# Entry
Amino acid sequence: GAGVSQSPRYKVAKRGQDVALRCDPISGHVSLFWYQQALGQGPEFLTYFQNEAQLDKSGLPSDRFFAERPEGSVSTLKIQRTQQEDSAVYLCASSLQDPRNTEAFFGQGTRLTVV
Amino acid sequence: GDSVTQMEGPVTLSEEAFLTINCTYTATGYPSLFWYVQYPGEGLQLLLKATKADDKGSNKGFEATYRKETTSFHLEKGSVQVSDSAVYFCALSSSSNTGKLIFGQGTTLQVKP
# Structure
């Protein structure tokens, strides 16, 4: 596709439910990031993939959060036993190579509301 | 740890006014600095960047200069338009990490005709 695609755009989950958020990066992009953006705040880093390798997961807030990119393309962020504090917009970004040197392109995000 | 601080918004200006949005950072080493913009209903877009001290990034009439001595990267535009209304995020990418971006909290700009 032309840009980074995320689905669903909106997700309402009951507390305790598991959710899976999908990111389709731009074709051929090696680097993929997940960010969490709380209301009125800037995005905060969650995790980073280079191809299928998860090189940095230091931003994942708890062991309820899990991300994968098994074939080095599509990525899924899974949140188990959702809590109200997980309500946020989850952003995915991809870049062709090292994002310090090449532009990171962001998807429109998935807005998760936990009720 | 690394961090970015932006001036709080919202900033409300009349069309053709001069814009400054302040941004300061704390980082080890020599980070790259960015301004991202989020228009209503759209995803984050890179507006401009600078990768070393004294570099000036510019795009669409916006400018920002990497000032290492003041650890700042203030965004400026000489004459804003209604179409510039958006949320602006200052960000850095440290030379010592994987390229992840560390964002400020964002500044909302509203331009009135």
Observations:
- DSSP finds no helices and twelve strands in chain B.
- The CA atoms of residues 38 and 44 of chain B lie 5 Å apart.
